Structure formats: C-alpha cells, structure tokens
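Quick check before the chapter quiz. The format below is the same one you will see on the exam, so make sure you can read both the input and the output lines.
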Amino acid sequence: MGLFTRKRDTAIAEASSRAYAAEASVEILQEGMADLELMLEDQGWERLVGGADREFSRAGLTRAAKVARVLAIQHPLIKRGLALRHSYVWGQGVEIAARADGNNGAQDVNAVITAFMDDPGNKAALTGAQAREELERALGTDGNVCLACFTNPRTGFVQVRSILFDEITDVICNPDDRDDPWFYRRQWVQETIDPATAYRTTTQMVAYYPAVGYRPRSRYKTIDGHPVVWDAPMIHGSVNRLDGWKFGIGDAYAAITWARLYRDFLIDWATLVKALSQFAWRGSRKGSKAQRAREALTRRPTTPAPAANPNNVGATVLLDEGQNLEAIPKSGATIDSESGRPLAAMVAAALGVPVTMLLADPGTTGNRATAETLDRPTSMEMNGRRSFWTSLLDRVHEHVIREAVRAPQGPLKGSLPRDPVTGRESLVLAQDTDATVEITWPAIDDVDMDTLVKAIVAADGTGKLPPEETVKLLLRALGVKDIDELLEEFFDDDGHWVDPLASAGQAAVDAFRRGQDPAALVGAGGEDDPEPPPEDNEA
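Here is the expected output.
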C-alpha cells in the first residue's frame, strides 16, 4: 500500500505541475491577445471600426453630409467629380413614356404620366433638369434622397416634394423584416411670418410619413402623439448602404480624406516654388566692396517701370573684375507637381471617375484619346446608378397610377386587390390595360451612328420587330427629343399603325376593310382639297 500511495502522490504532483504550466500559458496567450488589440488601437483601426460595427450614428451621418456639402462647393476635385457623375447619368436625358396611350381600346396611362411629369411643382422637385442635378448631387454628398408624394384624395393627382435628409431622423421598419420600412420620422423647424408685423416665429414640428406601398387596413392617426401623414407617403432612395443599414452615405465620403491630402500637397508645392522664386540669382565679390554689392543687388530700381514690364525684368548688369552673378541652381529642389497625382487618383477612385477626366489632364504619358475615353468599369458603374434611378422612378410612377385608380374622380379605372399574406396592394387596370412605364436611357459610350442605324435596319429586316418599335429606335439613334408626340402622326384615330411609306391606295383599301371611310383617310373631299373646275360641276 505504501508503494501505491507514493506513486499516486507523485502522479498528483506531476498533474498539478502541468496544470500550473497550462494556466501560465493561458495567461501568456491572453496577454498576447491584449497586446494585439492594443496594437490595432495604436494603428488607428480600433477608432476606424469602433463606430461602424453596425451602422454610423445619425449624428455622424449628418456631420459627414455637412462636410461633403461644403467640399462639393469649395474643393475643385470633389465639385468636378460630382459634376462628372451627374453628366454621365443625366447629361443625355432620359425618355419616359407609358405603353398604354389610349389606343386599341386601352386606357390612356401615358396621359396620366405626362401630366405628372409636366406639372411645374413636379418639375421643380423631380422631373426637371435642375431637380435631377440637385438630387444626383444629394446622392454624392448625403447618400440619400427622400421624396414625399403629396396625393389629392379626390382626384388622385400626385405632387412630389424633396425632403431634406437632415430632417429624417429615423426609419421604423417591420419588426420581422428590417428591409420593409413602414414609417419615416421627420423633425423640422417650421417658420411662419405675420403679414401685419413681419414678425417671424419658429415651431419645432414632428410627423411620421408612411412608406410608399405600406397601407394597412387599420391606419394610425398618431404615433407617440405626433400625426401620421397618410396622404404623403415617402419614397426613400439610398446609395453605398451596407446590409442592415437604414441610411446610405454619400459618394464623396470616401474621397474626403484624399481630397484634403491632395490640397495640402499642392499648398506645400506652391509654398516651395514661391520660396525658391524669392532668390533667383547669386552674386559674389571679393574684398571690402562686397557689402556695397549686396546692397545694390537688393535695391529695387528707382525709375518707374515701363507699362509692358512692371517688374523691371530682363535688365543688364555690368560687373567689375572679380565679381560673379549666376542663377541659383534648382537641381536639388523637388518641384514636380506630378508627384501628387496618386493622391488625385485616390479621389478619382472614390468617386468612380477616371483620374484623367477628374483632373481634365491626360498626364505626361497620356493623350487626348485617353482623356476622352470612358473605360468599361466606369461605364458599368454609371449604368448602375441609372438602374438605381430607374427603380426609384418606377416606384414613383406606380404610386401615380395606383392613386389615379384609387381616387373617386381619378382618370384611370381598375382595382387594387390586397395580398392575403403580405397585405400589400397590387395594381390591376381595367380593359386589360398595360401599366408598364418604359424608362429608356441613351448609351453612355458614343456609338457610331452609321453602325447603329445599320443594326436597326438589319433587325427590321427580320420582320420580327413591330414597325413602331423600329421608328422609336431610329428616332432615338438620331437624337430626336419628345418622340412620343412625333409617333402620334403614325397612328390613325383608332390607334392602328399607318406606314408612311405605303401607297395611298393601299391605305385606303386597309381602311375599307376595317369599315372606315377610305376617302377620309386619303384626304379626298377634305378641306384642303382643291375644288373641281366649274365645267365639271355643270356636267
């Protein structure tokens, strides 16, 4: 028994020793991990990711937007980069038209869309050229656009107004689906003026706006004591948003740091050049007359400078023997401004534009073709932004058509059946009318017109394209604006296509087969026809 007891005690002692060693190793590993974390913090990574593990705070987004707005006005690179993005996306315009134009027994959806787009208020807020520029710049600085769709409950007419991003303080989403927004909380300061005294008063306002498409059967009148504006649902579009975020962030955010560095580089470069230009010549003289030579060189000419030479440059100097005057060598000074080009390239990369176009300079190794050519990745990025606008405008147009059906005096007829599972409304127009609104963007890259027209003619030769589609493609290729008004001339009163190249006789036969008056179609007996000669009438 004594032998077994001694062996057991020895084993326990060895196990205890191993346990102590393991605990010491764990402590060393923990200290090592702590050191690594401190290294991350020392390198700045902890500060970088500390506030962005889930989402930037609302106050942080507001500060970033304010800085970007200032730089969009003050910094040349940010200003030009955002202007380039707007030019690529909106510079060539966009064609918007509904397929259903009242022909072939369908309802005139295109008239509803046209009336919405031509409204002066909607032009100022969404559909006009200036409004599109402002909204695209808002995506560059704020990363968010918020459109409130004020709807007339009687007629269904929609007027869109842009809401400042700073006023949208929160997004209330479906508790079971964070990608399903329900309400937008708006907080703003309303200013009123007394017409009698011109006294201004400000009031803090808070209201909730439902998201477009969210219309439950039971609708709250207030949330937390604040009104819910059901007649003004909101459409929110955001860019550069990560998964799970409520808001986006501007395109210029990633370029702010590098834009400042490039500005600082140019300031330092200009300071160096100015310092080097302070002393252009170096003179030397032996003996006691060196001080007088120094004073003579530093003294400005006393005679007035000629009008064409205000700085008195290009003068001639006469020196005695033993005197020397030579230009200061600049071989040791680095004054190459092209050294900062990589910083400008980082700004261009952040904004998604080529550095040659951002600087309006192809560089020492580039050429004019390089500066004017849009590379494929940039072209794809701009097409992606166009797709964003297409999706947002589709939501606007769908709301316009839906409210035109819902309103008792609306111009369209149809139904809005509700999905039993999601509770969402769907749009069904009467008379089997197509509710599709086509949004057509011109090509970003320049395509040779001769090649494009030949391709359209070849496609038309297959006989698979409807003639009206061929005409649309040709008119767009030729750059014709407002092609919808021009296309109306190619249809008769019943919406049937009339080929402008067909003979009048064939057109008359086709009209007769449809039960129409052939004479009215070809113009016989019309107001513009000449009267028959008198002898024919008498005969």
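If your answer matched, good. The chain is about 45% helix and 15% strand.
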